[in-house]
Task: structure prediction
Amino acid sequence: MTRKKIAVVLFNLGGPDNRDSVKPFLFNLFNDPDILGISWPLRPLIAGLISSLRAPTARKIYAHLGGSSPLLANTKAQSNALSRLLNEEEDEYQVFVVMRYWHPRSDETARQIQDFAPHRIILLPLYPQFSKTTTGSSCKDWKRAARKIGLDVPTTTICCYPTVPGLIAAQKEQVKQALCGLQLDSAPRSRPRVLFSAHGLPKRTVAGGDPYQWQVEQTVARIVVELKDTPDVPDFDGIVCYQSRVGPMEWIGPPTTGELTRAGKDGVPVIVVPIAFVSEHAETLVELDVEYRRFAQEQGVTTYIRLPAVGVSAPFIGALKDLIKEAAGSDTSLRSCEGLRLCPQEFAHCLQ
Result:
């Protein structure tokens, strides 16, 4: 039997690779019509203004990380871990990386895949919860790049996997260990508060039919239920909250900072879980580890524990492998972690 050649494309956000690339990275971000909903030719003008204004602050953020984003290196580590698992299969898999707003971008990766000459392409966003601003935007840009060079290969998109068992298991185990560690150190007088912190979105995006918030809540609900059903896990309060607000628009909430303020007033220990990030980058390593930790201390939070992103943990990478295998054997062009459409029909931004 002939081995099939299958190209797997991992989508991620991207980040600047040096100080000079901060401003063009920001321009690419804000020039995306799915991020800044303003028509051309006004959008690039506004994107240029925003990137110029935000670049000095962003450079200070990346200075904490040595001047560049670690996201590409961390994504490549996930790609390598996934490749090792897929190489155990009969078919020939090759994993590629596409960053939405910095290199390697869709055009250069599409050319590499064309040279690989696969029988099938599987698109796998490293965003477990779907949003038109992340997965939706990456998929549209990929289709543009593939069409541009005539890369016409059967393609399956894994649009979302907010409740895939491996993701839930990886997060659950980390929270369990943190809660049990609190009990061993010194039993807290009040129930610990677990803040499941996700990147926020403008309210108007969600109101327009984006399922991201609903999917984040599905992820958290599944983790909390499994933790509550696990023996010897101390009681805790689990709360979904949102970080990284940008601009004057009203965003979904509650904000993570608001929950830290409330935790300080209530005198409870805090465990922060980056629930929508699977790789370490500026929003975990700087925003959560530096800025929010300092803010929490100022609000009187005496115990602040930030759990790591799932990264290359075995349950998570194993879950990605299973999703890819299922997609490779499917005739459909679009799949979620539960087969076809996962979201209720009210969410118009779904790819289905």
The mean pLDDT is 95. The two ends are 33 Å apart (CA to CA).
